[in-house]
Design goal:
Blueprint: E1 3-12, H1 30-51, E2 55-61, H2 74-81, E3 84-87, H3 107-118, E4 124-128, E5 132-134, H4 139-148, E6 150-151, H5 170-180, E7 196-200, H6 201-220, H7 239-248, E8 261-264, E9 266-267, E10 270-271, E11 282-285, H8 292-300, H9 306-309, H10 314-324, H11 331-350
Parallel strand pairs: 1-2, 1-4, 2-3, 8-11
Antiparallel strand pairs: 4-7, 5-11, 6-7, 9-10
Helix pairs in contact: 1-2, 1-8, 3-6, 6-7
Length: 354
């Protein structure tokens, strides 16, 4: 029987005219990226259903019908897994001239509005980016939310004030936030990751109302707001506006989700994997969309694969880790990653899709 009080959700937003840059993706066409995110979404829900079989799983998308991946019917896969697919238009899309990076990330504001208005008071909703994978159950997260009403993820662990990240620092953000609202707290903002938010209906309503207000205000005054650099500004990613709200409302006091989720980098030149990662519930593997997650998708599609048959716990987590390079990359993964780069290079060159 489904636990109607726990909603585990993600979003799939696609615009065929989306020319935004997504630095973690090698594929450069919007229709190519769509299939990559479809595969990630399937792995996200399949891994959650294995670990949280009694939760309600919801995919929000602005596509009225999901395309097949080759001949594979992914809508049928979601139906068979019990994932609800809800059509939700993309209304919080920044104007093209305002945003060059991660435009589709703003779709989560539409999702937050839905959760604020269409869930019940006793329900707990957990939003994740689709390139996350579950290795353990949500029990610890639920226990924490039951005590504190919500959870946020401090992905940067409060870096030095002047350290630049994508063209801006915490000191820069404070100046911009004070420009937007003179009453913004006069202290360096804590940088909260956009890949995770969990809480009650009341939390989503409080946050959404503030998100909506500041989003519209920044649209109206965009030309007056200082830029990060010549080529980037406030709308290059949803996290800047979200962090304005989290810090203004002092929601950052509940940034405890690092006990359950981690932004894990598995690149040869940037790697923060650890044996301790197996104590977490969820891995956010940003660099694995076209590599490990894509290969895991093939196992999700096979009802008799080890993905579905291995016991939960350490065995399942180690199995997932082998595909993703956690805690260490093995030779097999290096070979398949290199092959993936070559294949994607050919797709880009000839405009091919899955």
């Amino acid at each position: 029987m489904k636990n109607k009080k726990i909603n585990i959700v993600t979003g799939l937003c696609h615009k065929y005219d989306d020319c935004s840059k997504y630095p973690q993706l090698m594929q450069n066409k919007s229709n190519q990226r769509l299939f990559t995110y479809l595969k990630c979404t399937a792995v996200f829900f399949a891994s959650s259903i294995r670990n949280n079989p009694n939760s309600r799983h919801i995919l929000f998308t602005n596509l009225e019908k999901l395309p097949k991946i080759g001949k594979f019917d992914i809508e049928k896969l979601f139906f068979d897994l019990g994932v609800e697919i809800k059509f939700l238009p993309f209304t919080y899309r920044p104007p093209k001239k305002f945003s060059k990076n991660f435009t589709a990330a703003y779709y989560k504001l539409d999702i937050f509005r839905y959760l604020a208005k269409n869930t019940k008071e006793e329900e707990i909703s957990m939003f994740f980016d689709s390139d996350c994978v579950w290795i353990n159950s949500a029990d610890k997260i639920i226990k924490e939310i039951t005590k504190n009403r919500f959870q946020l993820y401090d992905c940067e662990s409060s870096p030095p004030p002047n350290k630049k990240n994508l063209g801006t620092s915490r000191k820069d953000l404070l100046e911009i936030y004070k420009f937007i609202d003179i009453n913004f707290p006069n202290k360096l903002p804590i940088y909260i990751g956009g890949e995770f938010l969990s809480g009650t209906k009341k939390i989503f309503m409080e946050l959404f109302l503030e998100f909506d207000k500041v989003f519209k205000k920044c649209i109206r005054n965009y030309n007056k707001i200082p830029k990060f650099s010549k080529d980037s500004g406030l709308f290059d990613g949803d996290e800047y506006i979200m962090n304005f709200v989290y810090n203004k409302l002092n929601y950052v006091k509940n940034k405890r989700a690092d006990k359950f989720i981690k932004r894990i980098w598995t690149l040869p030149f940037f790697n923060n994997t650890s044996e301790n990662d197996f104590d977490l519930s969820v891995w956010h593997v940003l660099a694995e969309k076209e590599k490990g997650l894509s290969r895991l998708f093939k196992q999700v599609c096979k009802p008799n694969s080890l993905f579905w048959e291995l016991p939960l716990g350490n065995q399942f987590a180690k199995y997932i880790g082998n595909y993703l390079g956690i805690p260490k990359t093995n030779f097999k993964k290096i070979f398949f990653d290199f092959f993936a780069y070559k294949v994607i290079g050919l797709k880009n060159r000839f405009g091919l899709i899955d």
